[in-house]
Structures are given as structure tokens and as C-alpha cells.
Design brief:
The chain is built from four helices and three strands, in the order H-E-E-E-H-H-H. By secondary structure, the chain is mostly helical. A hairpin with a 3-residue loop joins strand 2 and strand 3.
Length: 153
């Protein structure tokens, strides 16, 4: 007798845009956790809640604070949660990318030692935010059309 069991909500039944959002969300979760691990985050003793006085650096490169790490964790949770649907995955990638584009510009405009640099951000963070913005927005547009084509058949 043939099985009429349809595949569950596993990875195989996800669209490419959902897989991309899930992967990006998982990376954000990982980065958020790593920001709280001494050794992976250098000068961990100088990790402060927020602001430019936090002199801890993830991987010795990216300036982080407790708030910065929490933002990564929240972005990760959003990505994993929104990846449950293709529309949610698209919105996460598009709007998340737009947020990172705004953060890139913000990082360029606000001086590193200013109290307005509350996240905090350094040049490495700024460049990473540009890459994230372009990557996330690019994925949103590149994979949205493929999703429509498959669903339209």
C-alpha cells in the first residue's frame, strides 16, 4: 500500500528563501552567544552594557557590548521565527537588510567616541553592516522570484 504521508515542516519542505532566512538567523544567534564568551570576545572584562566605553571585541575585531549582543540574539530569533513562512523570510531578509543599511550609515556619521554611539560600532562593524545589508537585501530579491516561479506552477 502506498504511503499518503506528506513531508512535514522539515528543512526539505522549506523554500530557498526560508532556508536563507533560517541560516542568517542562526548565524545571528551564534554571533550573539559568542559575544558573551571570554576568549572569543577579547577584552571581555571591558564589556559594558552599551556605549563607546565598551572595549570588548568579538574575534578581536568587532566592537561589542551587552546591548550589541542582545540585538544579535533578537535578530537571530526574528530570523528563525520568520523563516517559518516564505513571506516572513522575505520580510526578515529585506527589512533586516534595510536596518543594517541604516546602521551602516549611522556608523559612518556618528563618531566612535560619541555617546550617540550607544550600540557601539567601529569601522569593522560598519563594513560588516554594509555587507549584511547588501547580502540580506540581495537574498530577498534573488530568492523571492524563484519562490514565485515554483509556487506559480
Amino acid at each position: 500500500m502506498a504511503s499518503t504521508h506528506s513531508p512535514g515542516p522539515g528543512v526539505a519542505s522549506r523554500t530557498n528563501i526560508q532556508k536563507a532566512a533560517l541560516a542568517v538567523g542562526a548565524v545571528f544567534l551564534l554571533v550573539g552567544v559568542l559575544g558573551f564568551i571570554p576568549g572569543v570576545t577579547t577584552d571581555f572584562g571591558e564589556l559594558s552594557f552599551a556605549g563607546p566605553e565598551s572595549h570588548a571585541h568579538l574575534l578581536g575585531i568587532f566592537q561589542v557590548s551587552i546591548l550589541h549582543n542582545i540585538v544579535h540574539l533578537l535578530f537571530g530569533i526574528a530570523g528563525v521565527t520568520m523563516a517559518k513562512t516564505a513571506a516572513g523570510a522575505y520580510n526578515f531578509l529585506l527589512w533586516g537588510g534595510i536596518i543594517y543599511a541604516v546602521l551602516f550609515v549611522y556608523g559612518l556619521v556618528v563618531p566612535e567616541e560619541s555617546s550617540a554611539n550607544f550600540v557601539p560600532l567601529n569601522l569593522a562593524d560598519d563594513l560588516l553592516h554594509l555587507v549584511l545589508a547588501l547580502g540580506m537585501i540581495g537574498l530577498a530579491f534573488a530568492l523571492k522570484d524563484k519562490h514565485r516561479t515554483v509556487r506559480g506552477r
